[in-house]
Design brief:
single chain; alpha+beta; three-stranded antiparallel sheet; 1 helix; about 50% strand
């Protein structure tokens, strides 16, 4: 992937974070999702 341009999208929810990476043509090149631990979910909830 070095030498090519990419864009990343991040979706942060109270219970999880989702990340997707795509090239500039819109083709996905990677994705990951992780559940957030309860203490971090509480911090995010307190940001309302």
């Amino acid at each position: 992937m070095a030498g090519r341009a990419h864009v990343a999208g991040v979706d942060l929810r109270r219970s999880a974070v989702h990340v997707t990476v795509a090239d500039l043509a819109g083709r996905p090149v990677g994705a990951a999702s992780r559940a957030l631990a309860d203490p971090l979910a509480g911090v995010v909830a307190g940001a309302d």
